[in-house]
């Protein structure tokens, strides 16, 4: 097995582990590394595809706690935002796109971490949900990381964590599906060209990561898991940013 394939499997495993333990983080953790291992466009598509499976598996468990009215507004915004994200990413050369992906991940992480400390709030209505969904959908298509924008919305609207985490899962499914569809429509040739055995392996490591997350969730504090997710996401975002900058020099 080629080293790059092993690294792809490991990145997907870590992303699935994070998604199961913390309720989000697949794109944040695995996205930057898959962008580095593949090319930015097809790497993000692979993140979206695996993210659909990871989020859906969590959604099955949290279905009863989903807040459906907010979900519908957020999802509508995500579908529209995915169009903009797909068009933007398809029009950029590889180095600038790597820089954009790295920068988006870093900025979104910093924003989601600092907004809660500002002590401000916004109303939870159709307009704010649509805006959050638009930003999330665009980021999902461009960088494979649609979670932070909605997390920031949840903080600013004081959305109860349990309900938000449950609603986030079907929302991420819709956002990732929209991103895949739009990117295939915009540039069908960018679909990840992987062997059948690699696709099977991806399915296996996804299941392994989610199962490992089930076990880990019972033995580790969620706050500690979130710190680990953030460290990996920041590291990957910085690596993608640096690689893109190096390619321009």
Q: How far is it from the N-terminal to the C-terminal residue, by CA?
A: 33 Å
Arithmetic mean pLDDT = 86
Succession of helices and strands:
HHHHHHHHHH
Structural class: mainly alpha
Tally of strands: 0
Radius of gyration: 17 Å
Number of helices: 10
Question: What number of domains?
Answer: 1
Uncertain runs: none
What global shape is seen? Answer: globular
Kindly estimate the percentage of residues that lie in beta strands according to DSSP.
under 5%
Most strands sheet = none
Share of residues in helices: over 70%
Attribute tags:
mainly alpha; 10 helices; globular
Task: Walk me through this protein's architecture.
Helix content is 81%, strand content 0%. α3 (40-62) packs across α6 and α5 (94-114) runs parallel beside α7. It has helices at 3-22, 26-37, 40-62, 68-90, 94-114, 126-143, 147-156, 161-186, 196-217, 222-248. It is globular, with a radius of gyration of 17 Å. It has 249 residues and is mainly alpha-helical. The chain contains ten helices and no strands. The protein has one domain.
Note the topology:
Elements (H helix, E strand, L loop, with lengths): L2 H20 L3 H12 L2 H23 L5 H23 L3 H21 L11 H18 L3 H10 L4 H26 L9 H22 L4 H27 L1
Summarize the structure.
By secondary structure, this protein is mainly α.
């Amino acid at each position: 097995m080629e080293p790059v394939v092993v690294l792809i499997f490991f990145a997907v495993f870590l992303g699935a582990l994070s998604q199961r333990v913390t309720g989000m983080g697949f794109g944040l953790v695995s996205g930057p590394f898959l962008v580095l291992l593949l090319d930015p466009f097809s790497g993000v598509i692979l993140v979206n595809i695996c993210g659909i499976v990871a989020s859906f598996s969590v959604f099955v468990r949290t279905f009863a706690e989903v807040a459906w009215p907010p979900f519908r507004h957020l999802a509508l915004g995500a579908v529209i935002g995915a169009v903009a994200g797909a068009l933007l990413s398809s029009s950029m050369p590889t180095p600038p796109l790597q820089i954009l992906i790295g920068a988006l991940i870093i900025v979104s992480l910093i924003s989601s971490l600092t907004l809660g400390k500002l002590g401000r709030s916004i109303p939870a209505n159709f307009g704010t949900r649509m805006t959050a969904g638009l930003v999330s959908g665009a980021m999902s298509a461009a960088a494979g990381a649609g979670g932070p924008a909605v997390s920031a919305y949840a903080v600013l609207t004081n959305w109860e964590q349990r309900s938000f985490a449950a609603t986030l899962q079907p929302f991420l499914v819709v956002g990732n599906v929209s991103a895949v569809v739009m990117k295939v429509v915009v540039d069908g040739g960018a679909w990840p060209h992987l062997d059948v055995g690699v696709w099977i392996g991806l399915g296996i490591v996804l299941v392994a990561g989610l199962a490992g997350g089930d076990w880990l969730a019972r033995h580790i504090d969620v706050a500690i898991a979130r710190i680990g997710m953030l460290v990996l996401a920041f590291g990957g975002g910085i690596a993608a940013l640096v690689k893109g900058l190096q390619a321009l020099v």
